[in-house]
Amino acid sequence: MMRALFQTIRVHMGLSMARPMFQFIIWLSPLFLATIAIFIYSSASPEEIFHYVILGSGFMALWSSIVFSSASDINRERFYGTLEIIFVAPVPFVVILIGKIIGNTVWGFLSMVISFVYLMIIFQVEITIPNPFAFVSAIILVLFALIVFSFFLSLAFTLSRQAEALMNFIEYPIYLICGFMFPVTILPLWVQPLSYALPPTWAIELLRVVTVENSTFESIKIPLTGLLITTMIYVALGYSCYRAVERKARISGKLGVY
Amino acid sequence: MKDSIISVTDVKRTYKTETGYIKKKRRQVDALKGITFSVEKGEIFGLLGPNGAGKTTMIKILTTMLTPTSGKVSILGFNPVTEMNSLRPHINFILGGERNLYWRLSAYDNLAYFADLYKLPRHEQKQTIDDLLELVGLTDVAHQRVETFSKGMKQRLQIARGLVNNPEILFLDEPSIGLDPVSARKLREIIQHLNGKGTTILLTTHYMFEADELCDRIAFIDKGEIVDIDSPENIKQKTDNVSIIAFTVIGVNMEKLNELSRLPNVQHVQSSKQDYLTTIKLHTRSPQSIVPLIYDTMPGFVIQDLTITKPSLEDVYVQLIGGKVL
Amino acid sequence: MEGILRFARHSFLSYKALFGWLDPKVYILVMVMNPISQILFFAVLVNYVYDGDDLVGYIGANALILCVLNSVFGIMSIITSDRRMGTLQLVMATPVNKIGLFLSRSLAHVLNGLFTSVLGLIFGMVIFQITIPLEAILPLMTVWMVSIFAACGLGLIIGCFSLWTPSMHLLANLLASSLLLLSGANYPQNIMPDWLLSFADFVPLTKGVELTKQLLNEGNYSNVIPLLSAEFILGICYFVISFLFLKYAEHLSRVKGTMDLD
């Protein structure tokens, strides 16, 4: 099973990168986003720059890679008519799907790192991480949360035909609602519940508080709990979507043609 | 001799391709190696040949889409290389297959669009388009999007598109490829109807019966050269006294085929295999004497469906292109 | 008259035939929701960072940038779609004047781009409760029209590249992102390093964005004539270059036989 998972990750990473659109998203897009962000925040404090330029554009890069890969991978397989083949393969579909998502997330993380390095080298932005252990742990948790969220999105998009069209347009709305480049608190009050229902909001918040100098467990507690709870919710949602997709495929046999 | 409105003299076309960036590999392909023919006004002229023979290259040259490497071409008195702007309004062409139409537009809009491109006066357009839709039998679906059409309907719309400028010469490249038999017959009817109204037609095909049924004259083309030009009847005449003995057997090998070809008076042997059955055709002038020899040559084989017929155009084609008249 | 009618119908029919987003549902998603979410994101961002300073100008500039949907992605389709459908070779073999043909095809996208930008502006005005002076409307529309025309010219050049390369997604997104970055829609232009600024001078929309800010923030009309003339000339140059590319492609296809327009 693990072998199948690693094999999927490896193969899928190659497949994704073969698409020119994905190459753009991973290698070039972060440079543009980071440059625009640093120009906008050119006269801000180092802390703001770290929170909103570095983490913000890094997260935008990560998110874009999810939108343009994981969210649409099932639909792409359907388009090429390979979905049924995968579904009846001896390896469970869920393993293949998770493998794909992990593969894309690895690329997305790389894209985020590119954005960090670019800002450090070209714009001489200093990145100081007071507690590396906490930061690395937070990153791992964040990536896990995003994998769960991608898993849900990928299946939800499979269930509805309308969602397929929607998929391409959740890039900016998520940048906006999850407060990648500014605090969520500046958004209108009625939007904020939606923000807090989405794992990326808590994820970026966690990374922000974890990198504040002399951050305490008290300050980390809230975003950490928020991230854990939303992630659990999306595990449940993802599971029920998976069941629904499976039903659709096995019982009504409608996976290939809607 | 009537006026020839297409004349092609010793036309050659070579493609030079370069592959690789560092170590450039130059390759030269001779698609046409000196083609000469002429087409008379009002004729249906067929270019026949296997894939890669140079038919499409020839059509592209005639329709101004490609220039010949050397040789002379004259169409309606124009040189398609230098006088393409004067020539283009008088000709049109139809390519086989389902593409080459705007699927998101209706049939009517497709025709209106190309009517504009061929600078048809707007006051004439409506009547012309209605007539064309009528001709190809698409009047009822004139305002439906092409993407809802069947293959045959798309092909018929292609024909209508090729006629928007009321061309004096119409070129068709493999017009019936992939069509079901009914649509293909409808297509042949339309072509004959157009020809009846005086349109000169030049078509390429590799369906023999189609060429046989439609064409006044046929040019066999193979590996960029013309093998023979004549009317279908004359071509068949050339093999006047030849008969074809056809039969099927199970499990025959090369050795046996060679043995058959060495029989006296056998000119040519062809064989085609379908599943485990092999169909063998012998070209000969004295079928009666050959038939017993076949049984003698192939003891133990079950020989089925033995027939003796006059050669079809296809048999002639195979003989010409196959080249080995024994 | 007949020529004008033909030009207009051609523009409309090719738009319908080649631009896949005319289906109302898809149009609303791609051509309305997408630009609106983009302008909303940047407007909220700059409003926060600059504390509301010059917000009208930034919203106007961001609205103008939205035209890339047509001036990059839309205009490309007049070559890429035509080729994919196998109609490009038919069109190229008709007696029609090819320059007029591609200009008329571009026209629909200039107008659609203007429509998208205006839509974005109106949306931004409603959400952020801002107004623009009545007398600024006509100059602003003129500026936008010319700027979008120039952007379409550059888009057409990129569209021509589709005859050589299959990586159109990459090129188109690269161009769209470059326009967003270089135009300075979200920051004062002088923040950019000098070398980037001098590069931005040859990119469409830069001058349009600058004029939009000047018109809306300062009520300054004095630079309209010089900057707009420069933008217009830039646009003409782009179109000329793209026609040269098309001519070259036709030459490769017809004489050399190394390009297949089908």
CATH topology of the largest domain in chain B: Rossmann fold
Structural class of chain A: mainly alpha
SSE arrangement of chain A, N to C = HHHHHHHHHHH
**Number of beta-strand segments of chain A:** 0
Topology:
The complex is a heterotrimer of chains A (258), B (326) and C (262).
Chain A lengths: L1 H16 L2 H21 L5 H35 L2 H5 L5 H30 L9 H28 L1 H7 L3 H7 L14 H5 L2 H12 L6 H34 L8
Helix pairs in contact in A: 1-5, 2-3, 2-5, 3-5, 3-6, 5-6, 6-7, 6-10, 6-11, 10-11
Chain B lengths: L3 E16 L5 E16 L3 E5 L6 H8 L7 E6 L8 H4 L3 E5 L11 H11 L4 H14 L15 H12 L6 E5 L7 H16 L3 E6 L2 H7 L2 E6 L2 E6 L1 H7 L4 E8 L3 H8 L4 E9 L2 E8 L2 H11 L6 E6 L3 H10 L4
Parallel strand pairs in B: 3-7, 3-8, 5-6, 6-7
Antiparallel strand pairs in B: 1-2, 1-4, 8-9, 10-12, 10-13, 11-12
Chain C lengths: L1 H17 L5 H26 L5 H11 L2 H17 L3 H5 L5 H31 L5 H28 L6 H15 L11 H7 L5 H13 L5 H33 L6
Helix pairs in contact in C: 1-6, 2-3, 2-6, 3-6, 3-10, 4-6, 4-7, 4-8, 6-7, 7-8, 7-10, 7-11
Description:
The complex is a heterotrimer of chains A (258), B (326) and C (262). Chain A has helices at residues 2-17, 20-40, 46-80, 83-87, 93-122, 132-159, 161-167, 171-177, 192-196, 199-210, 217-250. With 258 residues, chain A is an all-alpha fold. Chain A has one domain (2-250). In chain A, α6 runs antiparallel to α10 and α10 (199-210) packs antiparallel against α11 (217-250). Chain B is globular, with a radius of gyration of 23 Å. With 326 residues, chain B is of the alpha/beta class. Chain B folds into two domains: 4-236, P-loop containing nucleotide triphosphate hydrolases (Rossmann fold), CATH 3.40.50; 240-310, Alpha-Beta Plaits, CATH 3.30.70.260. Chain C is mainly alpha-helical. Chain C has one domain (2-256). The model of chain C has no long low-confidence stretch (mean pLDDT 92). Chain B binds chain C through residues 13, 15-17, 63-67, 85, 88-89, 93, 95, 97, 99-105, 109, 112-114, 116-119, 121-122, 161, and chain C through 2, 5-6, 9-10, 13-14, 16-18, 20, 22, 85-87, 89-96, 101, 253-258, 261.
